Amino acid sequence: MIVIWLIVAACSTDTDEHNDARTGPSLILIIGDGMDDQQITIARNYLVGSQGKLTLDSMQYRGSVQVQAVDEDDPGKAVYVADSASAATAISGGVVTSRGRIGTTAKFDSDIVTVMELAQSAGLRTGIVTTASITDATPASFIAHVNQRFCQSPSDMVKRNERFPPASTDCSQDYKANGGLGSIAEQVASSRFDILLGGGTDYFSDFIEGSADTTVLDNARANGFSTIFQSEHLRMIEPKKRVLGLFSPSTMPVRYRGENGSQARLLERVNGKVIWPEPYGCEKNPEVGSVPTLGEMTEAALRHLANDNGFVLMIESASIDKQSHYRRPCGQIGEVSQLLDAVHVALDFLDSNSDTLVLVTADHGHAAHLISDISGLAFLNYATPGRFARVQTPEGSVMGINYASNDSPLWDEHSGVQIPIYASGSGASNLPIFIRQTEIFDISISHLGLSHPVQAD
Amino acid sequence: MIVIWLIVAACSTDTDEHNDARTGPSLILIIGDGMDDQQITIARNYLVGSQGKLTLDSMQYRGSVQVQAVDEDDPGKAVYVADSASAATAISGGVVTSRGRIGTTAKFDSDIVTVMELAQSAGLRTGIVTTASITDATPASFIAHVNQRFCQSPSDMVKRNERFPPASTDCSQDYKANGGLGSIAEQVASSRFDILLGGGTDYFSDFIEGSADTTVLDNARANGFSTIFQSEHLRMIEPKKRVLGLFSPSTMPVRYRGENGSQARLLERVNGKVIWPEPYGCEKNPEVGSVPTLGEMTEAALRHLANDNGFVLMIESASIDKQSHYRRPCGQIGEVSQLLDAVHVALDFLDSNSDTLVLVTADHGHAAHLISDISGLAFLNYATPGRFARVQTPEGSVMGINYASNDSPLWDEHSGVQIPIYASGSGASNLPIFIRQTEIFDISISHLGLSHPVQAD
After folding, report:
1. Neighbours of A79 (CB within 10 A)
2. Cβ contact (<8 Å) for B373 and A66?
3. Residue B21 placed within a domain
4. I need a labelling partner for B270 at 20 to 30 A (CA). Which of A217, A422, B55, B330 fits?
5. To which H or E segment does residue A99 belong?
């Protein structure tokens, strides 16, 4: 870890809009993990039909974003497909890094100053809401600095992540004993955030590095965090307290699943003839239990953060990505609908806080691909070689959803496609129609009146 | 064919912009066939690098478009993946139809009034430029009315298209002898367009229906078209003449191909181990010959069309789609670059004709998918089950381009993803960020001051 000198300054920004603002210049940044145009279209066709409009579709601005990553060993070399760690780091800190890195630079491992740190230093309040573990790559990139996304807890720090040999670099350079900041959970515990809501109790029950009796959660409490674990406690947050809410062991259960657990599968053939599967619809996931929705967490966070000095809130719908990895179209659709709930809450907030900017974007594209529900070449017995689902939509038609980036039974992979960005609120109409991912950082600090930091290589 | 009563009115539109307009309210509609966000990203990474910007990226507006199609037998039922015929018909006439249909309604086979017909009736000039045959689905949907896209020439009218049994409906209902308008080429020949430039001599050399000595081309000349066949003749078009320029037998040769003809292929495995192919770059297609570029045709068309009353010009870069069907990433990239040339010419025209609106969009999404050049699961010997290419970019990195919508050796298929729309010029900044495909028709006629026709079901 290298300490970086930085300049932070809070400036007042022009407020030439309505005088109804209860809160200072603020930013609500909503990230749909893996939410590319395929995901949005699939969700629209299911949720409101092909003639319908999503909440996103009525926002003031839409542009597209070039996803950015670089090679770990040769940071001058572009890598066209990002992961959540590199992408969220580009957004949070405005610096392009290599896949797997959290708030650190490729090769040189310098810590990257984030919009959250700049905002905290300038007296703005900060919060994060996610349906993943709060230690997962996207939220982590707004909180922590570590060379490897899988070092989520103290015990992760000392074991190789055997599922991912290409990403198996250990995190020993980030041991506190080696002058580092520790695991992601430890950095969450020692952070200055005002509110952090998501999953991840599993990562906070470890003893902290070098201790046999103090857990990460103990440390968070010692650092002033109130901890909550039940959905109903979201309504009872004390205004002046700093809050860490953890509502599931890791990723929260998703809203929808395929009927009877159906998901995309390899097509069967009998005597060379393709057997097209029966279409299935989506149903409520029976595992969803009593965890709060993304919309409920967003409401609680906004109630907690609104103040005269302004705030930054990052909200992630995490499992659009995860369900696409696992080839579960209904899972994806439900998590886009969770994101839409959060957008709805954010736009409602905007109604009476006109100095707020709401940005909605993704971190990278994904595998799910909307194709014909029966191939145009079916008469020749040709079909997709990938995992395929036929999803029955409420309007009475059928979508073909294909996953064919990888033949592994484990999962499908990301795409490097340019991704959407939507905006409403202060300055939204003036955004350029095409930006690179790091420019989201520039837009964020410019809107908040924060000075650009001097970042290390 | 059913004749439709329609209302046409030319109205003056507000011209609250610069006073430099040489031409009346005009529309330049540029369609990248199959040009979704994947295609644009792949082309950007290759043509200008991941830090670069395309001409598109600096336009004034970008939105997204819900692709529309319906079932032929049950036109109330949405079909989520369009073809060029249904999509271009939605754009040209504002009516959603079934796949394969050209300017006619699903099931009921009514002719759909197009923006071109409305413009012609109102005294505006009209033109079409394409790198496909002028009889291909996209341009045809702006010129003709026929139940089946494959009925391009008189001889097509009487044979089943054996490659496409699902689309094998014959066109006998459109025989002139049966009261129809004849094949697409015959309808081109009898049309009122001022300029038509593209490929397709093959379709104009047939004898017209019921004749043993008059070709379709003879009929076009009898209808007042000057015919040109050489690129250099584009500079010598007489201002008052109506022009049909045909520069190749069918689709024009594309700009780029993979080095030594390389394209995406199934991955080889040796003893279960994936053999990742060597990356290849793009090279000029040796078959390109002396056909005019899309930019040159666009320049010629704009010179010919500019006038006080205004005009409508539809420009298509056709082989983004065709090269993606054939899994040829370099072919796609070259045809996006042809489209960018046309956009550049259109934006230059806009500089001195501020009452013009330039729209750039696609008709549908496609199969090409930008993924990692080597799978993150390669260490477990997993890889895509599709056709795959590793394309070396001039900036020194490698893109993985995957085609896996279909395992046929013939081709890959379309996607139903929402597609981009870009705009510059008069009214561009006021367009909504999300529209359905038929709304492009509404925007077009509104901009041109034409009244909405009464369309049949």
Report:
1. 25
2. no
3. no
4. B330
5. none
Q: CATH number of the domain at B241, please.
A: 3.40.720.10
Residue B309 lies in a domain: yes
Compute the Cα dihedral for B209, B215, B216, B219 and give only its sign.
Answer: negative
Q: What is the pLDDT along chain A (457 residues), one digit of tens a residue?
A: 343 433 333 333 333 333 444 678 999 999 999 999 999 999 999 999 999 999 999 999 999 999 999 999 999 999 999 999 999 999 999 999 999 999 999 999 999 999 999 999 999 999 999 999 999 999 999 999 999 999 999 988 776 444 455 444 578 888 888 889 999 999 999 999 999 999 999 999 999 988 999 999 999 999 999 999 999 999 999 998 999 999 999 999 999 999 999 999 999 999 989 999 999 999 999 999 889 999 999 999 999 999 999 999 999 999 999 999 999 999 999 999 999 999 999 999 999 999 999 999 999 999 999 999 999 999 999 999 999 999 999 999 999 999 999 999 989 999 999 999 999 999 999 999 999 999 999 999 999 999 988 886 6
Which is nearest to A130 in space by CA: A54, A29, A38, A225? A29
Tell me whether residues A66 and B41 touch, CB distance under 8 A: yes
Residue A290, domain member (yes or no): yes
Q: Do A399 and B416 touch (CB under 8 A)?
A: yes
Can you list the positions of beta strands (E) in A334-433?
356-362, 369-371, 387-392, 398-403, 419-425
Q: Which of A80, A372, A420 sits opposite B370 (nearest CB)?
A: A80
A167-to-A87, A155, A164, A424 alpha-carbon distances in Å: 16, 17, 5, 37
Q: Is A415 helix (H, G, I), strand (E, B) or coil?
A: strand
Query: How many CB atoms neighbour CB B99 within 10 A?
Result: 26
| DSSP character string of B28-77 | EEEEETT--HHHHHHHHHHHT-TT---GGGGSSEEEEEE--EE-SS-TTS
Q: Tell me which chain A residue has its CA closest to the CA of residue B64.
A: A62
The single residue listed with the structure tokens 């959905």 is: A231
Examine residue A223 and state whether it is found in any structural domain, yes or no. yes
Check if A377 contacts B (Cβ < 8 Å).
yes
Distances (CA, A) of B290 to A2, A373, B319, B322, B351: 59, 42, 17, 20, 30
Interface contact A408-B380, CB threshold 8 A? yes
Structurally, chain B folds into a number of domains equal to 1
Instruction: Give the one of A63, A78, A417 whose C-beta lies nearest to B50's C-beta.
Output: A78
DSSP class of B201: H
Full-model pTM: 0.94
Ordered alpha helix ranges (H), A94-170: 115-121, 137-143, 154-157
Q: How far apart are CA A451 and CA A112, in angstroms?
A: 15
Domain hosting B193: range is: 26-266+286-369+420-448
Closest CA to B216 of B155, B174, B161, B171: B155
- Best CA proximity match to B66, nearest among A45, A82, A312: A45
